[in-house]
## 1
Amino acid sequence: MKAAIVGGGWAGIAAAVALADAGHDITVFEMAPQLGGRARSVAGQDATRPYDNGQHILIGAYRDSLALMRRLGVDPDAALMRLPLALPYPGEPGLRLPPGAPLASFTRGVLAQRGWPLGARLGLLAAAAGWLARGFRCDAAHSVAALCAGLPPAVRRDLVEPLCVAALNTPARDASAQVFLRVLRDALFSGAGSADLLLPRRPLSELLATPAAAWLGGRLRLGARVQRLEPGWRVDGEAFDAVVLACTSVEAARLTAGIAPGWSATAAALRFEPIVTVYLHSPGSTLPAPMLALRDGPDAPAQFVFDHGQLGGTPGRFAFVVSGAAPWVARGGCAEAVRAQALRELRWATPPVVARMLTEKRATFACTPGLARPPACIAPGLWAAGDYVAGPYPATLEGAVRAGLAAAQGVGTAAKGAASGSPTNTP
Ligand SMILES: Cc1cc2nc3c(=O)[nH]c(=O)nc-3n(C[C@H](O)[C@H](O)[C@H](O)COP(=O)(O)OP(=O)(O)OC[C@H]3O[C@@H](n4cnc5c(N)ncnc54)[C@H](O)[C@@H]3O)c2cc1C
């Protein structure tokens, strides 16, 4: 088959590699001058020290993303720092899961979290046992805040809220409890090491985008924004047997408006949450850990800070992450507020200065209860891949990669069906 992949983020790369490995003739159209989409590096003043377009965290449960990195010659053990899940706050050790079998590790970690009263620790374990007994499923209309309303306040403040905003990029009161439970299940209860944090040791583009560009070679067209898609399939007039739309939901909705109006309307209805990343520079400073959780509030935008010096990156560079950042985007002054928060909450060898602020207004779709997400199959021979496509995950790298693999499998199944004379175009 001759297949076009429109968009070269992690979903498009996953689809392209899977289709090429299955023997198809592929072309990747990417409108930007580089691959990677939202998970890419951004040039700084010093070309050898780019910024990440937002600090990214992977976890051990991201099996397909890690396999894709390996497929492209990247060793995840070298490219990522693996740490047991820990949420230390400045001056507080916080929750820390010891290595071991998931259930035992979670129980031991919670019981050892002496920052919480014993009743709070037992309350969390009882709630987790209830979630486990119900197969980590709940009413699709529930929010994370409703799901966790019975938990002790310290657990909600120190665990539920930071995990929810980190994984779903949506505040607990607006976030889907069902998706949150699925993330918890896969992270905490799906095999040893699944909850481990994997922190990039290299610039973000080196994890996938740069090796993918080398691997694709002449099959990649950069700076090529697809303007028109016609049934048959024609991509800007060029004929293909199948097309994977791995562009953003907004672009996919535009390209399909006249072809699949129902699908296009569902994609166009998605709403977004911004993420702001503020990079501070403070020569000679280090944090007590490569990653610290922070308590956000009316004058404290950031929920996490990462010490790039400890991650094999630029010493003295600190990435502050402001997830669910809509109020700060509307209000302005985020960078200065982060700097003030940093001065209040952390110790510095030299006064930190704002080096860079990156705002992604459409960082992820707002992962709200009962959200209708468009399905992967748009029409026979036309598939969607992207973190927003219907699935159990929030907008994550792993969700994007799995969507890319699913679209490639859909195209491949249809190709086999056509070869055997029995059309099998739907999932
Ligand atoms: C600041 C920030 C922090 C994040 N942190 C994390 C994290 O810690 N962990 C995690 O798992 N996830 C995180 N995410 C989410 C993660 O980056 C995304 O889920 C993932 O990158 C989405 O990949 P994608 O391929 O679906 O979409 P995209 O990366 O958006 O790729 C779409 C591609 O299509 C291209 N395109 C669009 N229109 C066209 C067209 N018409 N023709 C050709 N090309 C087109 C775009 O240029 C883009 O390259 C974060 C995101 C942001 C923004």
## 2
Amino acid sequence: MNDDVKRYIYSALMVFLVGVMIWVAIVFVNACGFSLNCQRGSTLPETTPVPTLIPATMPAMQMDAAPAAASDSCEVAATDLIGAWVEAGSPESDTFQFTDTAGVTCETTFEEVLPLFTRANLWYSGSMSCASCHSVNLAVSPAQLDMSSYEGILAGSRRADEASTGTDILGGGKWTSSLLYQFIAESQDVPGHDAALSASLTVHAGMPVPETETTP
Ligand code: HEC
């Protein structure tokens, strides 16, 4: 064999090897980019049927859990909430218990009862607040009743002046026979009470009483 043929064979081999290397490089860069720690080989993250949607990691919500989570407030009919407060002896700052619509025993304070008397647009759409009629000013307040504060409510109706107390509207702690119950839950022949205030109004109030372990 002469040298010319040898050179042709060697150069053909070189061209072939360089071509193979370029091809491998192109395939690598195409797949991994100009990086040596290629992620393509690592296991795929777990996905949902939607490929780009990573499955949630939070525990699923328990719909059948009997006691509501501690952060959940109780739901109760407004009249039942006021009634429970009255039956508990109308405490000013002590907690009182009530049973919510799900039958769970809950507790709250008067703080969550007062807004039922001072907030407008509550009992029905466009309703006036009780305190807007039954204001602190007894001279203009119907039935000389002040529904705007704890003291006013406890002082009662038909008061001679700011210093005196009048008729107990809380029925001496008997809710269904109280004037307050009658003027909220039953319709009366006076302005502001001509239709029974929605007895179906439910509100969120209080927290479930933590269950105590009962010994067998
Ligand atoms: C539009 C004004 C108005 C609004 C609002 C109103 N009341 Fe009255 N309320 C009256 C009038 C008028 C009377 C009857 C006064 C009378 O008989 O001299 C009355 C009477 C009462 C009485 C009876 C007092 C008694 O000794 O006879 C109670 C209790 C009472 N209201 C509570 C409430 C509560 C609670 C609310 C809110 C849910 C409320 N009122 C909202 C006007 C209003």
